[in-house]
Task: structure prediction
Amino acid sequence: LAGTAVDRALASVYRAPLDFATVYMDLDDTLTAGDGVNPDAVKFLFQCRNRGRRLILLTRHAVSPRSTLRRLRLESLFDETIWLRKGEDKSSRICEKNAVFIDDSFSERQEVSQRTGIPVFDVSAIEGLLEP
Result:
């Protein structure tokens, strides 16, 4: 067809033995991308939901995370939403040991990794966590 384009690109897929029951995910610049939704994050979360994993939103979002999730049409995706106060460490609210943590902030990932020992991932690594 006229004007048709084909894009063939490689995608990162990891086959690491990573077993976890809970996902802790940040909101700003992790679940969201600009004013919209990060499609890789949502795909990953739905894959986890389909496998019975618990999904927890862990954020210091400036306004009510529920209102933002409602605007993005994701308000019922998470099992729990934890809205942190300014200065409160994310690691202080991570109770599950069989979990992963996904956040765009290096300092947040470092703090969670050091204090909890759970695997941590940058938002750019979500593509690699997706199952084929």
The chain has a mean pLDDT of 90. The longest strand covers residues 54-59. The radius of gyration is 16 Å.
